[in-house]
Specification:
Largest sheet: none
Helix content: over 70%
Oligomer: single chain
Number of strands: 0
Distance between the termini: 26 Å
Structural class: mainly alpha
């Protein structure tokens, strides 16, 4: 059997390593998305305005900031329920409004379909994190 003083012998510690790796990979993607959003704010505001988003000059930087802060919460596992919940709200709000590929044709349709599906996968992971945070609250 393992040495009881060895943290790797603790099953909870072993579970934390895959969780940290998964949160780091997920967080890296979300950090890239948020930083890219801040760098291209004017373009994103114009797209949101074109899509009929109300007050896009306020909402776009707000939701980009929400994405960044929620990402940090998942990565550092601080207030994980609030962080995962904010990510769910972010993806449920932005994905169908901005990546409405069903209203497009050609290359624009294909690119938005890919982004829609990517966001759907990221939304699914946010639900998994929300569930994991809820499970830890019950312990």
């Amino acid at each position: 059997m393992g040495d009881e003083s060895d943290p790797a012998a603790d099953p909870a510690e072993r579970r934390d390593l895959p969780s940290l790796l998964g949160r780091s990979l997920y967080g890296g993607v979300l950090a890239y998305m948020a930083v890219d959003g801040f760098r291209n704010n004017d373009k994103r505001v114009a797209i949101a305005e074109e899509k009929g988003v109300p007050v896009p000059d306020l909402l776009v930087p707000f939701v980009t900031g929400m994405l960044f802060v929620a990402n940090l919460g998942i990565l550092l596992w601080r207030l994980p329920r609030a962080a995962a919940g904010a990510l769910v709200v972010f993806f449920l709000g932005t994905t169908p409004a901005i990546h409405d590929f069903w209203n497009m044709e050609g290359k624009e349709r294909q690119g938005n379909k890919i982004n829609f599906l990517k966001n759907l996968a990221l939304l699914g992971a946010a639900f998994v994190f929300l569930d994991a945070a809820s499970d830890r609250d019950e312990e």
